Amino acid sequence: MLNNSGKECRYILISKWIKSDLVKLKRIDLSYSEYLIQIPDLSNAKELESLNLKGCTNLVEVSSSVQNLNKLEYLNMEGCKNLSCIPSTFASKLIRTLNLVGCSNLKKFPEIAGNVEELFLNYTAIEVVPSAIECLTKLVSLRLTSCAKLRSLPSHICKLKCLRMLNLCGCSKLESFPEILEAMEGLKYLYLANCRNLQSLPNSIGNLKNLAELDLRGTMIKELPSSIEHLTGLDQLELQNCKSLVNLPDSICNLKSLKNLHIDGCPKLDKLPENLDNLESLEDLDISGSAVKQLPSSIIHLKSLGRLLFRVQDSAGLLQIPTAIDRLSSLKTLFLSGNNFESIPASIEHLSQLHSLDVAYCRRLRSLPELPGSLQHLYAHECTSLESVLSSKHFSEIDYMLESSNFKHFALPIASKWIKRLAEAFLQGSVKIHLPGGEIPMWFCNQNMGSSVSMQLHSSYSQLKGIALCVVLEFEENYVDSGLIVRCKCHFKTNHGGSSDLNFNLNNWLQWYYKPILFKSDHLFVWDDPCFEANIIDEDWFGKYSEATFEFFPLDYKENLLRNCKVKKCGVRLLICERIAIRTYNSDEEEEPCPKRLKCLQE
Question: Are 550 and 469 in contact (CB under 8 A)?
């Protein structure tokens, strides 16, 4: 093997080759040899099986002798963007992989022997795929991604019975897909995303009976052929950002194997097929950004549906949610931001697997019902008509970014709910809670004005299992968040002058949203650190210290100190895990004894 990968290969190397006996050489790897401009005659390398020229960006010529290397199995010229002379034919009957990705001067489809299995022609200047491609009977993968000049494919492509993947993503001039005149039983993956001039699929697409994934994102397709029902193995159908799509055929509901249907960003699509319940395997449905105003009644029968996304903007979208939404028994994620409904059915409480609910920007929403105990994440920014909330029992993440004259009406009931449940939430895992407000809840045993709070520690704190943290942040007028981090620096001291520091961060806040958030008032943040126990070296770590100081800093996403935001108040609560059967907080509700609770450590 000759390996000069990444070195400055110049004429010295060429002269060595000329003087060397190449007869027994099997592999040549010259990848990323940025100074290599040409390679010599390799006609004596009769045993050569692999030639790697990947990343040789200044290579301008490859000897025509390469096309006569009869034992060559692997040829990689990816990224050789300056090649002005590329062999048009390859005589080797053993070649299995040919990689010409990024050979932007390649205009003609290479002539290759029929044993090739993988053909990578992405980012080339190829305009036409010849009908002779039918001779590549062992071809498994054909990739023509971002061939911006490619206009058509021959119908002979259906002769490729071993073809498993056909990737034409980004072929912006491709106007049509060929008729599939014969069954292509091997084809599993067909990718046509961002073929911006593709307006239709032939009815014969139904001959791709074993197709598992069909990606049509960003095409100009107006409708799907009814024959799509014959794609009985289809698992995933991608139709995002098909701006011209006006309807889905009823026959699409006969796809019994379909698990993922993504039709978000289709603004002309105004209704869904009525018989959605036939999609018995559907797990993920995204119809965000469509013109749909009403969900078909059959949607509640999708027993496998775990994720339903219907996010819209500009007060469009749904006027109501199906009353029997609780029949979606597998639903885990429900994102409905920006819609026009005024209420959510009370039956949502019975969605026992729901863990994330997003109703942000639902400006007509007046109330939230009792939410399921499984709910961990609730997002309700800018619900400006919201007046009342009946909260979940076990939130681990609550985000009420509400700026409304109704806020006081709204904040009091929610505060009494979630404050009483914080102990259980911390016991279950990491907690993040956020809502407008200027007071630290009394639940936090140690609190102070300003950005720091100190407390004395006792030897009994060796059983400490967690720290709950709380701050009130004051923002300058019209502060816009684009990546807020709140850091708590914890400084622990011993009686003998020793000390240790730990940091607890609240970060990745509001990462779900597609636009910055405007703060108009003080906001309350509550959190703990999920890595808390990993930061502790031994079980008696806290028993060693006599005093602790907690100091809070608002940072931007680059972890620079924010100048237009400050900490007004802060609070800390130390948590110990012990077996008790009494309440650790006041409540008007009856509580069942809990064998394990988190208790506040008082001084």
Answer: yes
Compute the C-alpha angle 170/172/174, nearest 5°: 110
Q: pLDDT tens digits for 476-497?
A: 876 776 678 889 998 989 888 8
Q: Are 338 and 313 in contact (CB under 8 A)?
A: yes
List 467's β-bridge partners, or say none. 574
What are the structure tokens assigned to 539, written together? Answer: 């079980």
Please state the three-class secondary structure of 409-428 as a single string.
Answer: HHHHHHHHHHHHHHHHHHHH
Q: Convert 179-209 into a string of H (helix), E (strand) and C (coil).
A: CCCCCCCCCCEEECCCCCCCCCCCHHHHHCC
Mean pLDDT of 74-96: 83
CA-based angle 483:515:305, to the nearest 5? 105
Measured distance CA(304)–CA(208) in Å, rounded: 25
The one-character DSSP state at 562 is P
Q: Is 60 exceeded by the pLDDT of residue 603?
A: no
Q: How far is CA 153 from the centre of its chain?
A: 32
pTM across the whole model = 0.77
Tokens of residue 449, six digits: 């004005």
pLDDT at 321: 95
Distance CA 127, CA 150 (A): 4
d(CA 147, CA 104): 9
The two most distant CA atoms of the chain are separated, in Å, by 94
Integer Cα distance of 220 and 121 in angstroms: 24
Separation between Cα atoms, residue 165 and residue 364, nearest integer Å: 47
Neighbouring residues of 412: CB distance < 8 A, sequence distance ≥ 6? none
Q: What span, in angstroms and rounded, lies between the C-alpha atoms of 540 and 150?
A: 68
User: Within 10 Å of residue 476's Cβ, how many Cβ atoms?
Assistant: 11
Bridge partners (DSSP) listed for residue 586: none
In this structure, are strands 236-238 and 523-527 parallel, antiparallel, or unpaired?
unpaired
The values of phi and psi at residue 159, to 5°, are: -75, -10
Query: Which whole number is the average pLDDT over 432-460?
Result: 83
Q: What pLDDT, in 10s, does the model give residues 6-29?
A: 444 444 455 455 445 678 889 999
pLDDT one-digit tens code per residue, 201-229: 999 999 999 999 999 999 999 999 999 99
Domains of the chain with bracketed CATH = 440-600 (2.60.120)
Q: How far apart are the first and last CA of the chain?
A: 73
Greatest mean pLDDT among 177-191, 531-545, 573-587:
177-191
Alpha carbon separation from 363 to 340, 524, 542 (Å, rounded): 7, 22, 47
What tokens appear for 144 in the block?
A: 């023509």
Inter-residue contact 179 to 202 (CB < 8 Å): yes
